[in-house]
Amino acid sequence: MNVFALFYFPERQDIDMKMEGQVRIPSGCAIAAVISRDGSKMSGEMITNAMRPMHDRSNGLGGGFAGYGIYPEYKDFYALHMFFDERATRKSCETFLKERFEIVKSERIPTRKIPAITDEPVIWRYFAAPLKSVFADLQLTEEEFVARTVMKINTEMKGAYVFSSGKNMGTFKAVGFPEDVGIFYKLEEYEGYSWTAHGRYPTNTPGWWGGAHPFTLLDWSVVHNGEISSYDANRRFIEMFGYKCTLQTDTEVITYIMDYLIRVQGLTLGEAASVIAAPFWSTIEGKTDLDDKRKHTYLRTMFPSLLITGPFSIVLGFNGGLMALNDRLKLRSMVIGEKDDRVFIASEEAAIRTMEPNAENIWAPAGGEPVIIKVKDGAF
Amino acid sequence: MLLNAKNLNYRVLNETLRKVDGDCNIIECCGQRYIAAGMSDQNITVNGIPGNALGAYLNGATITVNANAQEAVGDTMNAGKIVVHGNIGDAAGYAMRGGRIFVKGNAGYRAGIHMKAYKEKQPVMVIGGTAGSFLGEYQAGGIIIVLGLGAKEKEIVGFFPCTGMHGGKMFLRSDCRNVRFPSQVTARTATKSDLEELEVYVSEYCDLFGYDIHEVLSSPFTVITPDSKSPYKQMYVAN
User: Fold this and answer.
1) Domain range holding B135?
2) How far apart, in whole angstroms, are the C-alpha atoms of residue B106 and residue B87?
3) pLDDT at res. A187
4) Chain B within 8 Å of A354 (Cβ-Cβ)?
5) What structural domains and CATH numbers belong to chain A?
6) Structural domain count, chain B
7) Dihedral, CA atoms, A79, A84, A89, A90, nearest 10 degrees?
């Protein structure tokens, strides 16, 4: 890792759509997020505008958002957001889904035609409940069944991608600049208690609709600024547990790792953060709190293949909260601020000031130090 | 001249700034990058949040920021002065080779990374609060001072300070009991002559931000210098 390459801010350039290995672009990327600890709702307009001052961190090859609490009228159903290459794929996918889910609503996701966003796939959403007889037969929990169905579609059904599969949340992503993507998806018409956002500057992989952030599974969503140098080690490990990395970009592996550590293994958010951004052995060795030392030794020993190396700042979204985390060397910028019941997270303070000019207590967490913000009990 | 930066693209803002004759007061700044890059002879005041690489390649101008600044302040700065009345982000003074940076509050990670000096070019960075990890990483010259004012229980510096340091000098206003330095540097208590050298820079800091210099200098300082002028001597071949 060459640290001198990190603070290199290239101009926007036009890039042919090339596959991994054929193109190398110095990285940028932007992330932002907001959450109301009281669970009060905010439209998606604020988070869209937050991306404007960070415009030059992206290059127009991907932008996206996740909103939580946006589907209160369907909160007990999984909201499946999907891309299809054509109508016929949608039809055959619907046949597949109907064998496994009760679909209570199926509709095109509303979009607005704007010159900045072109070549859109067929974008659809389904509010669905898995059929109990089906997942009980397979001896799977409802969530595991949904996760496996997502993996099955993304791996086996050509031209179909599930890009959001949680309850009472949804992601919205496209090829374009994030501020345009927000307008394209009419985010001002949604109300959520938390939002995350991403502007993409793809470094190693193609810019395509499925490759835009956030990457989601169930209600987990990840926006990520950085690149994972341990990607293949992480991928090989996580694929042993039924996850399939299909989206041609490194970030999706973080989503699956968090799902595995937290939902499947039962770790806390903080423990999961200590696995992926583990302190150096020398730092663990020097710890004077023996319980803490034992815990970190245990986590590094148990999950060595899930240490994520390389630069990252991420925001993990989930029902009821957000977690912000930097890589242990802190090779990416990230600041946090607050105002009243709201907490703001962004790659740059300018983005926070756009959301809330009077934000207070602006601070930068240390590398590997998770910041977890939850909506107070019962408020979402 | 008053320059309203609201919704101005960074390029337009900087082009306008270059044409200003005399001092300039920028208002409503919000993340525009490279402000005053390479400029040599003006006083520029920034209100709002300047974007990354503020004063990159600065060549003699003075920049005052009345808020926090983001990443890479004074990147490869050659001469001049940057005063920040708040905190600064990561990699401040990256490869800076002249001029001075004064930060009232805290610095992020990697402050003073690869700072260097040559003859009369002696860069100086004074951080009033605390510094993040990797302070003075690969420092090759110049002076980094951290005062730890208002640090309370927080350590004056994060993990791994002076990693790869092979030139220059660092002053930390602390006995550094809990700070672990790498093996190629020496940390010692500041002597009287060290303090005389320090006083010049600290007095400028105190004048800028309204601190009492006697109070600031009354605490013990630790001085860190590299052991050898060629720390990599034995790494590859003995020469």
Assistant:
1) 2-235
2) 5
3) 98
4) yes
5) 26-272+311-374 (3.60.20.10)
6) 1
7) 40
